[in-house]
Design goal:
single chain, alpha/beta, Rossmann fold, nine-stranded mixed beta sheet, four-stranded mixed beta sheet, 6 helices, 24% helix, 31% strand, globular
């Protein structure tokens, strides 16, 4: 029987495109759900997110799903996507300051307004479009080449790119974390569902990942 993958619905996220990409990536049943029982009994869980970090946290808390996400860590493979990665950190400065889930240490901060490229030309915020990711050795990157391009849309980032939990690095004016990892949890700032073959490969790896680092 195909494994069940729950995509958490807390009122914020590109749920349809995430679910379709996961279904396309491998043999599985994808449930878009806010039901705690369905999420807790799934074989794997994806935490998506778009928009403001404060709205995402408020949506999780209103449904009682913030504590459930914490309970999943170490028991069910969990993947965070975009703002779904950011709310796994401790705190974000968006929305006048947000206490997040604290699954990863560190803060989410805004890109500075004076970003420039190597030629000194100004870079716009938000960071939007395709950019290369320098990857670490991690099972979730299996079959994905170093410096593969993924699709980003964000104004805030996990800036401590040298932290032990960082599993991928991107540079937009300055380095930032493109991926975070710990036992049982893998999270990315970019959108795999918008990243064509490379994104599908990442979701396919998630469907077979045993949670190890």
């Amino acid at each position: 029987m195909a494994q069940k993958v729950a995509v958490i619905d807390y009122g914020s996220g590109n749920l349809h495109s995430v679910a379709k990409a996961i279904e396309h990536a491998g043999d599985c049943q994808v449930l878009v759900s806010s039901d705690p029982h369905e999420i807790k009994t799934a074989d794997r869980v994806v935490l998506p997110g778009v928009g403001a970090m404060g709205d995402c946290m408020a949506g999780l808390q209103a449904r009682g799903l913030d504590s459930l996400v914490r309970e999943l860590v170490g028991h069910t493979p969990l993947m965070g996507v975009c703002v779904g990665m950011q709310i796994l950190a401790e705190y974000g400065e968006e929305s006048e300051g947000v206490d997040a889930l604290g699954i990863f240490p560190g803060h989410i901060i805004r890109f500075p307004n004076d970003l420039t490229d190597p030629n000194g030309l100004s870079l716009k915020v938000p960071h939007m479009g395709w950019n290369q990711v320098s990857v670490t050795t991690h099972p979730m990157w299996r079959g994905i080449e170093n410096l593969t391009r993924f699709y980003f849309v964000h104004s805030y980032r996990y800036a401590d790119w040298q932290a032990p939990c960082v599993a991928g690095i991107c540079t937009y004016g300055e380095p930032f974390a493109a991926a975070l990892a710990r036992e049982g949890v893998f999270a990315v700032q970019f959108h795999p569902e918008k990243s064509h073959d490379a994104g599908l490969s990442l979701y396919a790896n998630f469907l077979t990942w045993d949670g190890s680092c």
